[in-house]
Amino acid sequence: MPVLLAIESSCDETAAAICKDGQVLSNIVATQKVHEQYGGVVPELASRAHMQHIVPVVDQAIQQAGVSLEELDAIAFTQAPGLIGALLVGAQFARSIALALNKPLISVHHMQAHVVANLIDDPKPCFPFLCLTVSGGHTQLVLAESPTNMKVIGETIDDAAGEAFDKSAKLLGLPYPGGPLIDVYAKKGNPKAFRFPEPQIPDLNFSFSGLKTAILYFIQEHQQENPSFIQDRLPDICASIQDRIVSILLNKLKKAALETGIREICLAGGVSANSGLRNGLEQMGKKYGWKTYYPALPYCTDNAAMIALAAYYKFLEKDFADLSVTPTARAGW
Ligand code: KG4
Ligand code: ZN
């Protein structure tokens, strides 16, 4: 019955969680508000905010779980990928606790943990499954053979899906992060009002940078004719942008499912909160006979519960890290 403390600090969320034998006992997230005014995450400010938040966040996770430090069987942390200065704060903190308590250390890959988030609550997918991980920094198609054995079979060659949402929102004058706002307006609009191009990218990779340019020209052209075009048609524009981003994602997911023959299909990452993506996946699932899954909302966006669960499976395999382990900004699998 291992009790694990996990720390996540790869981007702009300082998070800590406790899990006991694969069950989440606490999951605390401090979202850094400091970046809002800059329209994106400022790495230096993220590191400083992690340093301010990490002690109270870890403390709260331990208190809420009702465990003592002595009961911990291992300390887990996000080792990669992410902002290096942000990762360093979590890594250094985890190493210090492990050293002070003389407990093993477990290093976790953030993107694998996003996939593992699907194993937190029931119903859980059966292996092997496919996972479309879509966040502000990543867009990946992952084939998971087990909680510790997975491979990337497709990914974006430029922007991430979340970036496509956020950059489109910025062009429309919406505040950062604009993805959730596009989702809100899209619900009131017609997804077929405007047609944006679908990039022709071979294999299972994605591209979103062309879409961003197409949206920029589209807005400029319409604003020349009607300066209040955005105001007048915001729901239709948002619905049409969302429709295209979702179709780019789901068409590749469908290709992956048909090529591999896998019918257990998951979503993960912050963009999996998008209602158009969830509805689209459910419809496609019905059509192709898939079982579909997505994590509960607190486990979609960056959190430490998913790090704790990924660490739990590594603990079972006695896959511990050396105390000298250092974080890396970019990391393969
Ligand atoms: O996984 P996440 O919390 O952070 C990382 O990037 O790691 O994902 C954040 C991204 C942002 O780009 C945000 O705009 C997007 O997820 N997002 C959404 C929705 N909720 C969050 N995009 C579209 N629709 C949503 N409902
Ligand atoms: Zn993430």
TrEMBL record:
<feature type="binding site">
    <location>
        <position position="110"/>
    </location>
    <ligand>
        <name>Fe cation</name>
    </ligand>
</feature>
<dbReference type="InterPro" id="IPR017860">
    <property type="entry name" value="Peptidase_M22_CS"/>
</dbReference>
<dbReference type="InterPro" id="IPR043129">
    <property type="entry name" value="ATPase_NBD"/>
</dbReference>
<keyword id="KW-0012">Acyltransferase</keyword>
<dbReference type="Pfam" id="PF00814">
    <property type="entry name" value="TsaD"/>
</dbReference>
<feature type="binding site">
    <location>
        <position position="302"/>
    </location>
    <ligand>
        <name>Fe cation</name>
    </ligand>
</feature>
<feature type="binding site">
    <location>
        <position position="183"/>
    </location>
    <ligand>
        <name>substrate</name>
    </ligand>
</feature>
<comment type="similarity">
    <text>Belongs to the KAE1 / TsaD family.</text>
</comment>
<keyword id="KW-0408">Iron</keyword>
<protein>
    <recommendedName>
        <fullName>tRNA N6-adenosine threonylcarbamoyltransferase</fullName>
        <ecNumber>2.3.1.234</ecNumber>
    </recommendedName>
</protein>
<dbReference type="GO" id="GO:0061711">
    <property type="term" value="F:tRNA N(6)-L-threonylcarbamoyladenine synthase activity"/>
</dbReference>
<comment type="function">
    <text>Required for the formation of a threonylcarbamoyl group on adenosine at position 37 (t(6)A37) in tRNAs that read codons beginning with adenine. Is involved in the transfer of the threonylcarbamoyl moiety of threonylcarbamoyl-AMP (TC-AMP) to the N6 group of A37, together with TsaE and TsaB. TsaD likely plays a direct catalytic role in this reaction.</text>
</comment>
<feature type="binding site">
    <location>
        <position position="166"/>
    </location>
    <ligand>
        <name>substrate</name>
    </ligand>
</feature>
<keyword id="KW-0808">Transferase</keyword>
<feature type="binding site">
    <location>
        <begin position="133"/>
        <end position="137"/>
    </location>
    <ligand>
        <name>substrate</name>
    </ligand>
</feature>
<feature type="binding site">
    <location>
        <position position="114"/>
    </location>
    <ligand>
        <name>Fe cation</name>
    </ligand>
</feature>
<dbReference type="InterPro" id="IPR022450">
    <property type="entry name" value="TsaD"/>
</dbReference>
<dbReference type="InterPro" id="IPR000905">
    <property type="entry name" value="Gcp-like_dom"/>
</dbReference>
<dbReference type="InterPro" id="IPR017861">
    <property type="entry name" value="KAE1/TsaD"/>
</dbReference>
<feature type="domain" description="Gcp-like">
    <location>
        <begin position="23"/>
        <end position="308"/>
    </location>
</feature>
<keyword id="KW-0963">Cytoplasm</keyword>
<keyword id="KW-0479">Metal-binding</keyword>
<feature type="binding site">
    <location>
        <position position="179"/>
    </location>
    <ligand>
        <name>substrate</name>
    </ligand>
</feature>
<keyword id="KW-0819">tRNA processing</keyword>
<feature type="binding site">
    <location>
        <position position="274"/>
    </location>
    <ligand>
        <name>substrate</name>
    </ligand>
</feature>
